[in-house]
Each structure stands twice: as C-alpha cells, then as structure tokens.
Write a structure and sequence with these properties.
By secondary structure, the protein is α+β, with helices and mostly antiparallel strands. The chain folds into two domains: about 80 residues, no CATH class; about 110 residues, no CATH class. About 20% of the residues lie in helices and about 25% in strands. The protein is globular, with a radius of gyration of 21 Å. The N terminus is likely disordered.
Amino acid sequence: MLLAMAPALAQPVAFDAVSIKPASQTEGLIEPIRLSTPGRVTMRNYVLKKLLMDAYQLSRYQVEGPPWIEREPYDIIATKPPGTSAVQERLMLQKMIAERFHLVQHIEQRQVPAYVLLPGKDTSKLHPVKEEAGGCRTVGTMAEYAGMLTTRLNQPVVDQTGIAGRYYFFLLYSERPALRVDGPDAPPPPPPPPAAVGCPAWPGKWPQFESSVFDAVKEQMGLRLERRGTQSVNVMVLDRVEKPTPN
C-alpha cells in the first residue's frame, strides 16, 4: 500500500542533513541494515529499490526501474529532529529520494500472480507462542507469516489459514533446489540451530538446504502454499532516476 503524502505536520518533513556514499562493504553476502535512533537514521548497504520499499511501504514486486536500483548499494546517514515519528521519517525518505536521486515516478495497476496460505494435513507442526522468550526465532500471526512469504517470493501471499494466535516461524529452503548435490559426494547437512531456553527446537529433520519454499512451508510449518490466480496491485514505475552525487 502506498504511503499517502500526509497533510501539514508539526515537524518539518525533511532531514536536517544527509550523507550518501557508495557502500563501503560490498564483498560477500551483505544484508541491508537500518538503524533509527533519536536524531539520526543510519542505512548501510541500501540499494535504491530497498529505499523506495521503506519510504513507500512497498514490496519488491511493486517497484519497477533500471537494473542498477537493486545492484548498487549505498551507505546513508541522515539527521532528523528529536521526536520524529515513523510516518514523518518515511516522508523525509521520500523527499530525500526525490531530491538526491531526482526521482520522477508514476503508479500503475498491474495484475500479478498471487498465492494463498492454507492449513495443511499436519498443523501439529505449528508451535504456538505461550510466553515470549528472549532469543527465540521470529514469531507472529499467520498474516505476518504470509507477509514474510510475500517478501521471499516477491509475489502476493494472502493468509487463508483461519488460524488465530501467534506462532514461531520456521522457513529454510534453497532458492535453486535443482542444483543440490546428491549421493555419496553430497556434503553433510549442517547441524540444527540450537533452541534458546523456552523456545521450540527445529521441527523434524533438519533440511539439507534442498527444499523449495513450498516444501519448506509444508515440512516445517505444516501449512500449504498454493497458486490462486492473480491480484491487482499498485506498481511504482520509475520514469526518471539518477545516481546521487556522493557527499
């Protein structure tokens, strides 16, 4: 859902100062990191596509632009007035992107493939959260699990499990399961991750990274992920965008 530009706010909707530089660390598997503290927001290894996703509350499939917007990461440090709200910070990000990346965009309605999350035959694999314990894996509702799958699949996933409550999330799979190595030359599977005190252990057999996301949802959560037609979504199309001048 696109974040609408809010009416006049008590705080100015612009950062006090912004520094944007090419990311200092790009070797290996580097995940984007965002840390928002009073008076400052720091983003490391952020590509423009991720910036747009944060600023406008979009999924990956809702942003369309040139290839470099998801290949060239930046380190960004911005200062903001104390007491800046989350909504104000997103508006500040929108303004920063427009000014520093010279963004011109429009919104189109697109039909995209959609999936539904359904209860499987063995929902006993679900581990309800009885008491929040520090150090546990991600927990949340089935709708939030569907949201996590939306991010992984880069396509909409709608929760139709009808299952209420909060649960521990398990999701480990290979994005290219056909490339796995079988037979006597196959590498041994990694050990299961240790469970923290008060947290459930890994359910069943620890996968050898050969599962597809559909297998993982079934084997690790006892749920089903099925394709169900298409869904109409807003897509941001970038008409013009430029690489920022480092400062």
